[in-house]
Amino acid sequence: MNDTLTRLGLGTLAGDAVTTCAGRNPNWAGTTSAGVRVFVKQIGGDERVATNRFRRAIAVETERLAGRFDLVSPRCLGWDPHARLIVFELLTPSRSGADLAADGDFDDRRAEQAGRLLATLHSARLAPGPPAPPFPHPPAALTWPEFAAATAAELELWRLVQNDRELPEAIRALRRAQDRAAPAPAHCDLRLDQFVDHDGRLYLTDWEELRLADPARDVGAYVGEWLHRAIARLDAADTDLTHDEVVTRAATGFAEVRPLIRTFWRSYTHATDRTDPDLAARAVAFAGWHQFTRAFAHAHTRARLSAIDRAAAGVGRTAVLAPHRFVAELGLGSDS
């Protein structure tokens, strides 16, 4: 890492002054010997996959450095293709969108900024890249290694998905709908922790998964994050809640976060000139599938599927099966 920093003329990081953040990629942050605040990220994982992710991220930074892509994002200071290291200006102090949400500080002003950021991204004219991978579809059967590695909670959730006669066809319909949509540069890995607040300004980060894709994937991810948070606000100690109790409490939580979706949507639609009457409905369906991905993530470390995860799967199923019914209810209507 210090070899890269030195080559870029940024000094070096001393071990006792370096901090790291949680995430799938190794990272280091601190102030270098030259007085430069840096955040260094190494794109890790399988070499072929990591190389492709690195190339996508660098393609975005190259466009930004050339002035062809104007988005509020931490300034890139350079990279090392051999080590797959990317160096950014460290924003400090800063808080992630996930932390803001957890503390109740993700307000209308930040939701408005998030909408403008995504609209700017989806309106960008980036050089064409590889298309996004197909939207995941529940497999008809797990492979033996998948089955052997799964927790009891994961297998329980897979039974719910695979025994559902309507859900697979609804997902196939969503895939056909996204294939008909006009593609745009899309983040494709959007979560609230990809937003960073610094001095009252919201930044969007992490471009490793950016592709030409259906923009509804990003909009749905934003909606899905808040939808899941409404469900997850239930008291973790209440492990014996009935399904009806979970749904009732989740509805109360969603009433609190719906304004943040409505403000985001208004900002997004006002900042883009895209004409796509079905965008909102596809976003609702993507938000529904987001509940399954979150439930699977939780089930990976558990022996029992919780009532909260069951509720998330139930809410997600409803949204995937009948997205048009919930466009206005989720804050994505024209009169929201």
- Give me the secondary-structure category: alpha+beta
Estimate the strand proportion. 5-15%
Query: Can you tell me the CATH class of the largest domain?
Result: Alpha Beta
Largest sheet: 4 strands, antiparallel
Helix content bin: 40-55%
Coarse morphology: globular
Unreliable residue stretches:
none
Task: Strand order, main sheet: write it out.
Answer: 1-2-4-3
| Number of E-state strands | 9
N- to C-terminal distance: 48 Å
**CATH homolog superfamily of the largest domain:** Aminoglycoside phosphotransferase (APH), C-terminal lobe
Second CATH tier, the architecture of the largest domain: Alpha-Beta Complex
At the fold tier of CATH, the topology name of the largest domain is: Aminoglycoside 3'-phosphotransferase, Chain: A, domain 2
Number of domains: 2
Give the overall pLDDT as a whole number: 90
**What is the rounded Rg?**
21 Å
Q: What is the overall number of helices?
A: 11
Sequence of secondary-structure elements: HEEHEEEHHHHHEEEEHHHH
